[in-house]
Design a protein that fits this description.
Blueprint (H helix, E strand, L loop, with lengths): L12 H8 L4 E2 L1 E7 L2 E7 L2 E6 L2 E5 L8 H7 L1 E6 L5 H8 L11 E3 L5 E3 L4 E13 L2 E13 L7 E3 L2 E2 L2 H7 L1
Keywords: Oxidoreductase
GO molecular function: FMN binding; riboflavin reductase (NADPH) activity
Family: Belongs to the non-flavoprotein flavin reductase family.
Amino acid sequence: MSQPPSGGGTVDPRTMRDVLGHFASGVTVVTAQGEHGPIGFTCQSFSSLSLDPPLVVIAPARTSRTWPRLRELGRFCVNVLAEDQTELSAQFARSSADKFAGVSWRPSLQGQPVLDDVVAWIDCELWAEYDGGDHTLVAARVLDLGADPGRRPLLFHRGAYGLLETRAAEG
């Protein structure tokens, strides 16, 4: 059944979340090597932006307590999670003291944490920031990157991990 139009003018935030939830997105964990160890956060808003210069974009929530710390460092790594890494996504979404507890990773050539078994990783440096309402739009220059073509990405769709049709077929 199709969602009726909103009626123009004012857009209800819940309706917007429901409608835009029909767009499946990947899930990332953005990491950096801080002064007192690695830090990171789960970020669903990620996209390629430009090939020349090589840029990507992330959109951390303005309420993020981790993004300001990464901004100060100026460099970070975007880790694209694999379909079996839902627990990792949840772990980095929490406001816990040590999100890296029990997490295996290696440093990139730039020294940023690349999480084990991710689909892809993109090492970046901060390029620019823009006002994005309740989020910050962060453009980042790509310094290095890599992928494992044998891994499948973790998807977020309609408020849950995985595609709705896949979940229905498995249940």
